[in-house]
Structures are given as C-alpha cells and as structure tokens.
Amino acid sequence: MNRFILTIALVTLPGSASAQDVLIRNATVHTATAQGTLQNADVLVRHGRIAAIGHGLNGAGATVVDAAGKPLTPALFAGINDIGVEEVSGESTTVDSHIGLAGGKDMSVRPEFDVTTAYNPESVLIPVARVEGFGWTMVSANPGSGGSLIGGQGGAFRFDGSLDPIGGRVLFVTLGGDSANLTGGSRAGEWMILDQLIDEARGRIPADSKFALLTPAGRVAMAKYFGGGGRVAVTIQRASDIRRLLRWAKQRHVRIALVGASEGWEVASEIAAAKVPVFVDALVDLPADFDQIGATMQNAARLRAAGVDVGFYLSSDASHYARKLRQLAGNAVANGMRWDDALAGLTRVPAQAFGLENEVGSIAVGRRADLALWTGDPLDVANTASQLWLDGRAVPMVSRQSELRDRYLHRDESPLPPAYSR
C-alpha cells in the first residue's frame, strides 16, 4: 500500500499539462464495455490514450501505479447541469445558463442560444466534481428561460481545462406541467408550438409572418434537430406525455433523450422499442407534483429491465452536488438495478446518448485515458476516488473545499491568520 501512495504522489505533482505514459497494474478494471470486469488486470496508457489492457504488460518508460486490486473505472459522467456556466445560483451575474425575455415579447424562442460559449473552465465547481472521480459533464441550456419551452443548445465538456466542448450540440426542451404555463396554460399548447416551430424551420411559415416565433438564426438552429439531426433532450415526467412525445418524435424523425421520466417505468416497453435513452433521478419517489404521481425509486431498475438505456442526473442542485450521482446509482442498485448497469449509467450510456462513445465512457484500446481509481466500490459513498486521470495525466485531487478543510483543521500549525492559505 505504501508503494501505491508513493506513486500516486509522484504523478500528481504540478508539471507539464501534456499527456503522460502510465501503467496501472493489478486493478479490478470495470471496462464499461462488452469485456465487462477484468480481475487483476493492467492498463497501459501511451500519449494520453489507452494502448493495451491485459496481464503482465510491459510499461517501459511509463509511471507505474500499483492499484493493489482496487477498482478502476472510466472517469464518471457528472450529469446534465450548469457546471462552468453557474457559480453562485443566487447571484445572477454568475449564472449564464439561460437567456431572458428580449424585445418585450411574450415569448422569446431562441434555439440558436448556445450556452457553451459562456463555459468557464476555471469554475471552482470543476475541481469539486473531479476529486469525486467525475471527468466530464453535459452543460445544459435551461428550458423555461426566456418564457420558452425551448432552452437552447448545450454541449459536453471534459474537466481538463478545455474551453471548447467535445462532440455536437444538444437542444434542451421542457414539456409537461412545468412548461404548460409558457404556452397558454395547456399541454395542448406545447404540441401546437412545437409543430409551429418545425413549420417555421422548414419554411412553411414565412419569416415575416406576424405569428412567427423564430429569428432567421433560430430557423437554421431548429432545422438541425429535425429529420434525424442532433439529439434533443426533453425534460418530461408524466407517462401519457412520454407516450405522446415518443409518437411525435417518430413522426417527425427527431432523435430524443428523456430527462426525468419519473413515470417512465409505466411505458418502459414503448421507450425501449423506440431506442430512446433516459436520464433519471433515482431518488425521486414522491409525487412532487401531478406529473410525478407514479414516481418510484424502482424506476431505473424497471426501465433497464425492459431494455432501456438508463443514465443518471440530479433533478435539483445538479451543478454543486454532482458528486451525489454516485449515490443515485448506488440507490438504483439497492432498488433492483444490476451493478454493471448502474455503472454504465455513469459512463457508457451518456457517452453513447450524446455521440461520444469513441471519446469517453469506457476503458478500451484507443480511447482517451480518462480513468478513475477508487478505494473500493465506486457506487458506495463510503469509498472515494484515489486518483483521476484525464488523457493519462494525473489530476491533483484538490478542490476549494479540501483546501478550506485543511486550512481550518491545521490552522494552529500555521503562522498565518485563518484568512490566509499562503
């Protein structure tokens, strides 16, 4: 164990930001692929990519880390949130996740709004997530902003300091009781507005019509998501709404993902048949509103048993508490979901849902070396991430929270006042 601690300390020293060569020996490797879990296996990283997986690998020139049989997983997915575009939710100048009403209009539908251009890779929330083993996230444009059920476009970011997202954009939409008040107070108005937006994007409604809702740029943006284009992430809860959305998406050739789906288990076979991924909050088990009367903590297990690809997200405080996603996955296991499927919900499933399976979400030869080493079962919150690697580069396991903890735990040993760390 001392050798393990020593090698970790060496690779986490500040230094070059370039990719590193690393050989992780004797790990329980949860690949999140068809290979499943490999016992006492080695993972060799060359130039930031996984070069080999096996036993007794030759790591000449690479930094060696003895995992001592501990679990090694892909870097985890931090959910659908506002990390990087929100610092303090109560301070509007630090929140860039939505666009407000413009021009005095009753509703401002701006699908061209791209929240990724506001992303801050130096957000203090990023190290907080990284020290818990999370390496990437989906940054969302909040639907409901601007008085519209269309939030705008978001994208996936790795927590490696990059300014730009990876992969394509995702359009964020809210349907059901949460957005009915944005379309005249009736759910029927939501489908009316969505169909009108499609007609506008396809030129069936003139741009100069007094009924038009989209700008010229908005028409171009909307057109990208219809007829089999980019992914549309729809926050929706009620079973009947989900059934109607599945039908609507099939008729209009829209690639959707469901977010929330508290009553998804009631229509699980239909979701599976449509091959639609679902992101659930596995701790939702009470009817917070009339759209969630059928909520149950067995939702994830029942969906997966029906053949649905299930990922996880937090329905509240998603940015500041991304670390709780491990708890959500663990609770899904406690309520009937297979362990491997729960880990996939934090790794492979979101990567596939957002078209990033060749970049993140699995341990396979040729993939980015985005890895997390754990003290024990990663779905048990009693365990922690010992080390996170991004592109094979060991990330310092330090956050603002850990710095504050250390300052005040050892303040009597410092000659400086408590307000100073150095």
UniProtKB/TrEMBL annotation:
It comes from Solilutibacter silvestris. Gene3D superfamilies: Metal-dependent hydrolases, Urease, subunit C, domain 1. Residues 1-19 form the signal peptide. It comes from the Bacteria. One of its GO terms (molecular function) is hydrolase activity, acting on carbon-nitrogen (but not peptide) bonds. InterPro entries: Amidohydro-rel, Metal-dep_hydrolase_composite, Metal_Hydrolase, Metallo-dep_Hydrolase. Residues 285-383 form the Amidohydrolase-related domain. The keyword Hydrolase applies. Keywords: Hydrolase, Signal. This is Amidohydrolase. The keyword Transport does not apply.
